[in-house]
Each structure stands twice: as structure tokens, then as C-alpha cells.
Design brief:
Layout (H helix, E strand, L loop, with lengths): L43 E5 L23 E2 L2 E2 L4 E2 L19 E19 L10 E7 L7 H4 L7 E8 L5 E5 L5 E10 L3 E2 L1 E8 L3 H7 L2 E2 L8 E5 L23 E2 L9 E19 L10 E7 L7 E8 L5 E20 L3 E2 L1 E8 L1 H12 L4
Antiparallel strand pairs: 1-5, 2-3, 4-10, 5-8, 5-9, 5-11, 6-7, 6-9, 12-20, 13-15, 14-19, 15-18, 15-20, 16-17, 16-18
């Protein structure tokens, strides 16, 4: 296993030019997994003890933090992140914060799941970043309020122990806790600013909820669908095809580079669990001159089995949601989308229901190992 670099201490003051030129970062082995704290999945920062300089909501904004060196407000420098005021000691004789002083924020994950890695990015917080951070996770049913989450008796599981972090750096941490979480608590010691929080992991849906729905999108990310492999990642990631809602811009879908050979592009998916698929949607919303020309969809039941075509190669229209009713239910655990010869789609939806084996698999996963 490759060790993840650790960044500590402040960065150099900003001296002009590209503010990311000296941003400290590294490849993280978990970065290909979905961000469970993605706002598009319904994640939110539901509370923080202090957000004097910059609001807590910035933590989960999409894209990298923006730095505008000349923008100031009535409280000081406007920062694209979450920033608290400076902590002080109790008296003139001891003006420094104590070792345990810290600020905190509560994050509701958009999709509950197992956390595999976390990135605490302090971009543009060069000398006003926290000295240390820690993260904990909790799993509560329903939609608990901040007060309920902070009540005595709520079990919080450590995910990242109290660890030094660096300023103007993407601080990455692998997580090895095999447990499903619905909420996180981020602590920064003693105070400071964090630009972005990314929580990479695997979605673990509630089989009781999915069973109650009956027919649902069995490949949707929020329901536990996963992109396993893709032929082309040039313009935008394949997991966009299983995000909620419709694309409102071209880059919210999946688009490939232009092919100059006789091949074609494709994505393979793992469904939430074994399911019986009854209808398919292929959406090319906002892809007008670059949508895929033709597409087909296949299912496979189990690892390594044969692919069975459920939607034959069909001409696609630009900026259109295409709907296909299957002549009969098709059972599978994996799906494959083939596009010819290249181009993009914005969403793939496979409407179906869990089989008994699928519901049993999800129930076992929800309970966790050894339960």
C-alpha cells in the first residue's frame, strides 16, 4: 500500500499569479470512489459551532475553492471555505487556547455508506488553517436534528484521529472502519479554516426503503449503483450518468473524446444488488452536437457471466430522454452501456425491483460484518 503524504505547517504567503501553483496535494487511492458528501446527493453541513468569517456550507460546494485576493467584507477577507474566529484563552495571564479547544461542524451524508477516505482541503488557508483535525462518524435513522446528533448517548466512531494538517494543502486520510455512517463530525483544533471536505466511499442503501418503493432505479448512485469501469474518462467522469436528476449543463453528463478508429465507448456498472429490470432510460440532456450516435444496454447476472442485450443498438437523439419498456423482466447484477462510435450521455436509469437474493444481500451488508 502506498503511503499518503502528510502536509503540516503553514504555506508561503500568496505572492500573485495562479493561487494553486503552490497548492500541496497528491494522488489519493480512494479518489475514484463517489463523494458521499456530494451536495447533488443531498448532503449538507447542518450545524457548526462558529462560522464567523466564512459559512459552513462552503465545505461541500462542488469544484475547487476560489481565491479572490482583493475581495474583502465587513468582517475581513472573504474566503471560499468554512472559517471560524480566532480562539483566545481565559485571561491575560493565559491568552492562549487550551489543548482541547476546537471548532466543529456536523455533516449529513447525501448517501449513507462506508467511508474509505477523506480529503480535508485547506486551499487558500495558508496561515489561518487549523493545526489539527479529527473526524468521527455516526449512524442514525431518519433525519435527526443537530441537537439529537449531539445528545448524550449517541455513539460516534473515530474515523480519523486527531492529526496535524497543513495549510493550502489537500490533506488526505484513508479510513478502515467497516461500518455504514449517515453523519460525520469534523473537528478543527483550535480554530481556523477548511476550504472543502470530500468523503469518498461506497453507498450502502437501506433495503427496507428500496423494497417499500417496489420499482426504483437499480443503478442510481444513491441506491447503491457503482461504475466499475469505463473506456474513456477524457472530458467528464462516468459516475455522472448515475447521479440524481437531469443534467443542466453539458459537463454534468459523461462525454468521451472523438474516436478516430473503428471502436466504440462503454461503461460497466454494478447494480445496487440483484434486480429484475423492467424499463430503461438513456438521457442525452444538454449534449447536442456531441451526444452518442447509437447506444445499447446489456445485463449480466453474477461475476463473469455472459452479457444479455436488453436494449438493442438504437439511434439516439441529441438533448433527449429516451425511454424503453422491456418485453419482459430481465434479471441481473451488472449492466453495460455501449455507445457508438463515441460521444456522451447524461444519465442511465434502470427501473426495476430487488429479487429475493438481492434484498438478502443488501440486508447483510446493512448489518455490517459479523452481525
Amino acid at each position: 500500500m502506498t503511503a499518503i503524504p502528510r502536509f503540516t505547517g503553514p504555506a508561503e504567503p500568496y505572492r500573485g499569479g495562479d493561487p494553486y501553483a503552490d497548492h500541496r496535494t497528491a494522488p489519493f487511492p480512494f479518489s475514484g470512489l463517489p463523494d458521499l458528501a456530494d451536495r447533488r446527493l443531498g448532503a449538507a453541513v447542518i450545524a457548526a459551532n462558529d462560522e464567523f468569517f466564512a459559512p459552513r456550507e462552503n465545505l461541500l460546494l462542488p469544484g475547487p475553492a476560489v481565491f479572490e485576493p482583493d475581495v474583502f467584507g465587513h468582517k475581513g477577507k472573504v474566503m471560499d471555505g468554512w472559517e471560524t474566529r480566532r480562539r483566545r484563552g481565559a485571561c491575560a495571564e493565559h491568552p492562549w487556547p487550551t489543548a482541547e479547544d476546537h471548532d466543529w461542524a456536523l455533516v449529513r451524508l447525501g448517501a449513507p455508506g462506508v467511508v474509505r477516505g477523506v480529503v480535508v482541503d485547506t486551499a487558500h488557508f495558508r496561515g489561518n488553517h487549523p493545526q489539527e483535525i479529527s473526524l468521527e462518524g455516526a449512524a442514525l435513522p431518519g433525519t435527526p436534528s443537530p441537537g439529537e446528533l449531539l445528545a448524550d448517548g449517541v455513539p460516534w466512531t473515530p474515523l480519523v484521529p486527531r492529526t496535524p494538517v497543513g495549510g493550502h494543502a489537500a490533506n488526505g486520510f484513508e479510513v478502515s472502519v467497516e461500518q455504514r455512517f449517515t453523519h460525520l463530525r469534523v473537528r478543527q483544533y483550535p480554530d481556523g479554516g477548511i476550504a472543502r471536505l470530500r468523503v469518498h466511499g461506497e453507498v450502502v442503501p437501506d433495503p427496507g426503503w428500496l423494497t417499500a418503493l417496489g420499482v426504483f432505479d437499480v443503478v442510481a448512485l444513491v441506491n447503491g449503483g457503482v461504475v466499475e469501469d469505463v473506456s474513456d474518462r477524457f472530458y467528464s467522469p462516468a459516475f455522472h450518468t448515475i447521479l440524481p436528476g437531469r443534467s443542466s449543463r453539458m459537463d454534468e453528463g459523461w462525454e468521451t473524446r472523438r474516436r478516430r478508429d473503428r471502436g466504440h465507448d462503454w461503461i460497466t456498472y454494478r447494480l445496487a444488488a440483484q434486480a429484475s429490470v423492467r424499463a430503461v432510460e438513456i438521457d442525452t440532456a444538454c449534449l447536442k452536437g456531441n451526444s452518442a450516435g447509437w447506444a445499447s444496454v446489456s445485463l449480466r447476472d453474477g461475476e463473469g457471466g455472459p452479457w444479455t442485450e436488453i436494449v438493442p443498438r438504437t439511434r439516439l437523439q441529441p438533448d433527449t430522454n429516451h425511454r424503453f419498456l422491456l418485453p419482459g423482466p430481465a434479471t441481473g447484477t451488472h449492466a453495460r452501456l455501449d455507445v457508438h462510435p463515441d460521444g456522451g450521455i447524461s444519465r442511465l436509469r434502470l427501473h426495476g425491483a430487488l429479487t429475493r437474493d438481492g434484498a438478502r444481500t443488501l440486508t447483510t451488508r446493512l448489518r455490517g460484518p459479523g452481525r
